[in-house]
Design brief:
The complex is a heterodimer of chains A (265) and B (795). Chain A has 265 residues and is of the alpha+beta class. In chain A, 34% of the residues lie in helices and 22% in strands. Chain A has two domains: 46 residues, Uridine Diphospho-n-acetylenolpyruvylglucosamine Reductase, domain 2 (2-Layer Sandwich); 205 residues, Uridine Diphospho-n-acetylenolpyruvylglucosamine Reductase, domain 3. Chain B has a seven-stranded mixed beta sheet with strand order 3-5-1-12-9-10-11. In chain B, strands 7-15-14-13-8 form a five-stranded mixed beta sheet. A four-stranded mixed beta sheet of chain B has the order 18-26-27-28, with helices on both faces. Classes of the chains: A alpha+beta (265), B alpha+beta (795).
């Protein structure tokens, strides 16, 4: 790890100002990705801006048609939340499958969404549920937020404060864990709303994506059999030492079936 | 005072008091006055000419004390890292043994090859300076696979090693095997890959070196399984430091598995550098650094053929293997895929003719050496896989074909056609026990239940034997060992009757402090709590070859047993004098020396006291003191073995293999501490499960980059991968070790991979699958199932 300045602002505007005024500075939420990167000397930001002292960024609120989760809420809190378990059980299940207990205690929803790791779990839940990313300056729809490998719609100095999830009729997440890292080799989040079904896939490509043919089929018939024969194209899917692209494509179908099963159970 | 706790008991481990309360003393816990920090600069290329190193920017970096390179080592006329074994080909031509400079000179040969050592006041300063070093590389194509390395036109690692072949080694009667194959009713063939593994001990490697000008002495603290051997190899052959001026300490070490049983260049560099800078230096490897510098294991490509008669009796076995050595010869490197592989190809069977050819091959990868099991898991895997292939092809039940060929208990000692003679064993007894313990008779019910859930269930057997307790020096010397393989122990009885043992083996997780104390407690009748075991310091322990090859109890324990016998013998002489009896009439039992047939007796403590306060003592015939030393060199290897039965479930939708049941019935000879033996089996089996299902070191051909260079990409087995294991022993006693022990450290890793892969193949056999390479990953299984659905795969 190389030396860096460390700031702990207690107001969002102050944090945003530090972020814009110190070139290459980084926000740290749970630090589950950033700290290992620093330790390996793969990144050397001149300053870290710790978000843990900011008020009102932790917690889960029931807004009726939506559930709002503060950006600094750790995964373990979402996983154990009676509210999330009752209203969006698929999202609580997703949080319970992230990393290991240490990661779930430190890691936050805001950090995960802002980092947009192509194999992270939360992007699938956020896109699958069509959530809204609430930031220090605006609100961004999930469909416009994730822009591929570690890229998002966040502007310089913009800080995620919360994620607002519409409550679906049914939702489920199925994850095929990469054996070593336990990130999603393929993870699929399926959510059924009155207006239709959304299917979001993480792990398979360079970023989370939706699968319109499966969404259409499941909107007609919300049953695993509806998509069992739908194969997705291998174009743009990842091939690496753990899984070849055609295997990942196959897993998208299998995990979607299992996510629907989970949503129905 | 406590009680005698002897052989067969399972006391809690003595060493766990400090480990479980955070009071262990590992190399990285040690701080020396004025200590500096060292960082190695390693090659990022698999293969490159080293045109030059510009130190200037690094030397100007804050806190930097020195930057050392291969040129500096050459100027100081330091030696090459030695290889402890010299093997030869069939014509007696010695292996090619190119120099292994501790810092690269002229060329780098693997990603991780050391180019420079940077010493600074702090680790951060050393790391920062290391990044400023300018190294001029002329990158060459890398070759990482053995098949590729021996092809014409492949990149050549050394000018004088044509086709990258270090040695074309063979064993066995080739002509007899060819004759048997001509008469065979059936020949089973199998091509397989034994996957490359990375040991990943929990504690990364580390070292501290210090030079004391006042005494002209060096001290090296290092994460080693054999500090005396490091002292010998490094002092005598690399750095030219006399043995009495070099102390090597291996304190608490957090796991080894073979990774720490080699003399590494880092040890030599840091010791040499400590004198150059006249300051102590500490180096602690990061996990990532370990991946590209810890010696790797396995990595074979093999073609095997088994000849059988019409009844399924094995007539001959022929094995051709290409074994990866990596970029240089490590300490035991060439010994592992040859001497520890070929002689095990007889297994537990009466196969009369065996021939084995191994081409030992250099590649642009980390040097390959021993990893838990070392050669024997590879041999077991080839043999136990091809037995299943033959059974399937001939329509003979897999258990039945094993029974037809097994060495019967009465036939021991049994001379194999590949050098080794098994002294004892009962493979049939282990098999029978395992069949019951694994509830094989109800497997069909479980398979049907899995099928109802859409899963394929399979059962796999491995009936194996290994050779351990390394090793009889005379035998090893004939095979090319350049050192002895005995062990030593000193039993120091204090004036008050407590005992300190100095032993040349090294405890890094095996429970020696407990097991060895039990032996002393039993043999001398002293309380278990009154025995301490000292190891891992060349200034405190006389000598020793260290811990590897399941040798600590077999060879070290035997030395300890002999030394306690000497203590008793001397005690009898003292007692005879004190009790005014003839020495032949003195009996020693349960801590008491007594005159046979009388109630006259002296306690062990009284004899110890007399030995050190010799007021009434036979000084004219006996020296004072009660301390005895023994060296033990075994007459043969020991041959633990057993039967492992794995049961797996395959999810055909995802290709995931789940290990659902595991049973092991092993013959490890006398069991000193059943709890520790069970723990050794657990750990060994889990590592075998790792090889079979999860672990794989993958290099990129061409660039030589290690693609599985972190725990994110190299899958270690975890607790949730494992079912509860059923572990039992079915022991026959070793006929030549003093206590009948055979060793248990590696049996789990040796027996298990074949059992698991045989189970996976069994689960998929109805689809025409006849072999699965390790690791049986979901992607690999899914691919097999995709191909199995094609008509061509059914042939």
């Amino acid at each position: 790890m190389k030396p860096f300045a460390y700031h702990q602002p207690d107001q969002i505007p102050h944090a945003a100002k530090l972020l814009t005024s110190i070139e290459d500075s980084k926000l740290v939420a749970g630090g589950m990705t950033l700290i290992p990167t620093l330790k390996q000397r793969l990144a050397s930001p001149p300053a870290l801006i710790d978000l843990s002292r900011l008020g009102n960024l932790k917690g889960i609120a029931d807004d009726g048609a939506t559930i709002t989760i503060g950006a600094m809420t750790p995964h373990v809190v979402v996983a154990a939340s009676k509210l999330v378990q009752a209203r969006i059980p698929g999202l609580a299940a997703l949080a319970s499958m992230i990393g290991d207990p240490a990661v779930r205690i430190r890691g936050t929803i805001g950090g995960s969404v802002a980092n947009n790791d192509p194999a992270a779990d939360y992007p699938a839940g956020v896109l699958g549920l069509g959530a809204t990313i609430v930031t220090s300056t605006r609100e961004i729809a999930a469909d416009g937020f994730f822009r591929g490998l570690f890229e998002t719609a966040l502007e310089p100095g913009e800080i995620i404060t919360a994620i607002r999830f519409p409550v679906p009729l049914k939702a489920g997440y199925a994850k095929f864990k990469a054996p070593a890292s336990r990130y999603a080799l393929v993870g699929v989040f399926v959510a059924k709303f009155a207006e239709g079904v959304r299917v979001a896939v993480t792990g398979a490509g360079s970023g989370v994506f939706r699968v319109p043919p499966m969404e259409e089929a499941l909107s007609q018939n919300f049953d695993p059999s509806a998509i069992a024969a739908i194969k997705i194209d291998t174009d743009g899917l990842t091939s690496d030492i753990h899984a070849e692209a055609d295997y990942r494509a196959h897993l998208v179908t299998v995990m979607t079936k299992r996510a629907v099963d989970a949503a129905l159970s | 005072m406590g009680n005698v706790i002897g052989i067969g008991a399972s006391p809690k481990r003595k060493e766990d008091q400090r480990f479980l309360t955070g009071r262990g003393n590992y190399v990285s816990d040690i701080k020396r006055p004025g200590m500096t920090a060292g960082v190695f600069v390693r090659s990022p290329h698999g293969h490159a000419m080293l045109r030059g190193v510009d130190k200037s920017a690094a030397l100007a970096s804050p806190g930097v004390i020195a930057v050392l390179t291969g040129e500096d080592a050459a100027a100081d006329k330091l030696g090459s890292l030695p290889c402890g074994w010299g093997i030869s080909d069939a014509k007696g031509v010695p292996m090619k043994e190119p120099p292994f400079p501790m810092l690269a000179q002229g060329k780098v040969r693997f990603v991780g090859d050391m180019v420079a050592f940077v010493i600074a006041e702090t680790p951060a300063q050393a790391s920062a300076a290391a990044e400023l070093l300018t190294v001029d590389y002329e990158v060459l194509p890398s070759v990482v696979g053995v098949l590729e390395a021996v092809r014409p036109g492949a990149p050549q690692l050394f000018d004088d090693v044509p086709n990258n072949i270090c040695c074309d080694w063979e064993l066995g009667d080739k002509a007899a095997v060819e004759t048997a194959f001509r008469k065979a009713a059936h020949v089973a063939k199998l091509s397989l890959v034994n996957n490359r593994l990375i040991g990943n001990p929990m504690e990364p490697r580390a070292a501290i070196a210090e030079y004391e000008p006042g005494t002209d002495r060096f001290t090296l603290w290092t994460t080693s399984q054999f500090p005396h051997v490091v002292r010998l190899l490094m002092g005598a052959l690399v750095l030219n430091i006399p043995q009495h001026k070099l102390r090597v300490v291996a304190p608490d070490v957090g796991g080894g598995f073979g990774v720490k049983q080699f003399h590494y260049g880092e040890e030599a560099v840091i010791t040499w550098a400590a004198k150059r800078v006249m300051r102590p230096i500490k180096w602690v490897a990061s996990r990532s650094e370990g991946y590209v510098s810890d010696r790797h294991g396995r990595d074979h490509v093999t073609e095997a053929e088994l000849a059988l008669d019409e009844t399924g009796k094995f007539l001959a076995f022929r094995v051709n293997t290409l074994a990866n050595m990596g970029g240089y010869l490590s300490t035991f490197g060439p010994n592992i895929p040859t001497n520890l592989y070929g002689p095990l190809l007889g297994g537990v069977y009466t196969t009369p003719a065996i021939y084995c050819n191994v081409k030992v091959v250099f590649t642009n990868t980390v040097p390959v050496d021993a990893y838990r099991g070392a050669g024997r898991p590879e041999a077991t895997f080839v043999l136990e896989r091809i037995v299943d292939v033959a059974a399937a092809e001939m329509g003979i039940d897999r258990v039945e074909i094993r029974r037809r060929n097994m060495i019967p208990k009465e036939a021991y000692p049994y001379q194999t056609p590949v050098l080794v003679q098994y002294d004892s064993g009962d493979p049939m007894g282990c098999l029978d026990g395992a069949l019951v313990a694994a509830d094989v008779k109800n497997f069909g019910i479980r398979k049907a239940e899995s099928a109802r859930r859409g899963k394929f269930r399979g059962l796999g057997y491995s009936t194996y034997v290994e050779a351990c307790g390394l090793a009889p020096s005379r035998f090893a010397g004939r095979l090319g060992a350049r050192g002895g393989l005995y062990e030593s122990a000193t039993v120091r009885v204090h004036p008050t009757g407590q005992v300190t043992v100095m032993i040349g083996t090294h405890n890094h997780g095996q429970g020696h402090e407990t097991t060895f104390a039990q032996i002393v407690s039993e043999k001398l009748g002293v309380a278990f709590d009154n025995v301490d075991i000292v190891f891992g310091d060349t200034d405190r322990v006389q000598f020793g070859m260290g811990t590897y090859g399941s040798r600590s109890l077999v060879v070290g324990g035997a030395a300890l047993s002999k030394a306690t016998d000497k203590v008793v013998a001397k005690g009898k002489k003292i007692a005879a004098h004190l009790l005014e009896a003839a020495e032949v009439d003195i009996q020693f039992e349960a801590g008491k020396f007594s005159v046979a047939g009388t109630d006259r007796a002296k306690t062990f403590e009284e004899i110890a006291g007399a030995a050190y306060v010799p007021h009434d003592y036979p000084l004219e015939v006996l020296e004072p003191g009660l301390e005895e030393q023994a060296y033990y060199d075994p007459v043969n290897f020991t041959y633990p073995g057993g039967c492992h039965i794995a049961e797996v479930e395959v999810d055909p939708e995802t290709g995931t293999v789940t290990l659902v049941n595991y049973t092991a019935v092993d013959d490890v000879g006398t069991v000193i501490n059943p709890m520790i033996v069970e723990g050794q089996l657990h750990g060994g089996i889990v590592q075998g499960v790792g090889q079979a299902l999860y672990e794989n070191a993958v290099y990129d051909e061409g660039s030589g980059q290690l693609l599985s260079g972190s725990l994110m990409d190299y899958c270690m087995p975890r607790a949730d991968h494992m079912p509860m294991m059923k572990i039992a022993t079915h022991s026959t006693l070793c006929t030549h070790t003093p206590m009948g022990v055979k060793g248990c450290g590696e049996v789990g890793t040796i027996g298990s991979p074949a059992a698991i892969i045989n189970a996976v193949v069994d689960a998929l056999s109805h689809l025409g699958v006849t072999h699965v390479d390790m690791p049986a990953t979901p992607n690999r299984i899914w691919r097999l199932l995709q191909n199995a659905s094609l008509p061509v795969a059914a042939e």
